[in-house]
Amino acid sequence: MTTKTPLIIDTDPGIDDAVALAIALNHANLDVRLITTVSGNVDVTQTTENSLKLLSFMKKEVPVAKGCNQPLLIKLEDASEIHGETGMAGFEFPKHHTKALPFHAVEAMRKTLESNEEPVVILAIAALTNIALLFSLYPEMKVKVSKIVMMGGTLSRGNTNSSAEFNTYVDPHAAQIVFQSGVPIVMVGLDVTSTAVLASKEVELIKGLGRVGQMFHALFQHYRGGSLKTGLKMHDVCAVAYLVQPELFQTQATHVEVALEGPAVGCTVADLKMKYHTDTNCEVCLAIDVPAFQEWLVENLEMSGDKLHD
Q1: Residue 101 belongs to a domain with what CATH number?
Q2: pTM greater than 0.90
Q3: Which domain holds residue 174?
Q4: pLDDT tens sequence across 257-285
């Protein structure tokens, strides 16, 4: 019998976040204990609402805690031009009556970590503001985190300025705090996730997967992360894939730092040759088996749809 991995998901839905959440919530090897939200793709009020309506649609009861509405030190720049004004436009979700927890996401993380006997994985698929605050306010909680699997950073070009990926660009100071925390980190970066696209064949297969497939197919029509012709980029889904099927990836241990100012602010600088550091602080993904990932994603969305009808 496989032991389920206890999981906290920190997120900012977002269309690819929504796919990642649907798979994680229904995966046989994952036990999602808490979902925390942060501003990023859209503001935190909307990312919280998106998480709640997705949970209601998926018929899952997982606590949601609203987190930070802005980065630690700089002004928020969202990605509504990619995900739409609401973050998940294109599908009319049924009305729901679920509410977020009455306390901040950082407190919810602390409570969840304290109450769990074994260390918890944090799946970080947004700016790292909440996690940086958790480690700053409650450094004793670091030992309760077995690892952070994050979608963020890049080893090559960025999608904001020329060098930075969006999640680390949104709050570079938070990213630097997390990379310096001493907690094991797996970085699934933009250079890898940009290759993990859903082609038209997979999109049509997903359309046929009942209510879940129809919902995501509708959202995909409004997603600007790639296109239906060139392929839709499933950035955040790659972090879930690494968590449950790491053999899809090639990785390397290295040391990563974050640029905090200048034209490359938010850039993740990886010392891949370990010329300037003696210690590693991150396992970075170098490549992904794209055909196997595409097959895995469709299969897992199909299982998510099946569970909706159990």
Answers
A1: 3.90.245.10
A2: yes
A3: 5-305
A4: 999 999 999 999 999 999 999 999 999 99
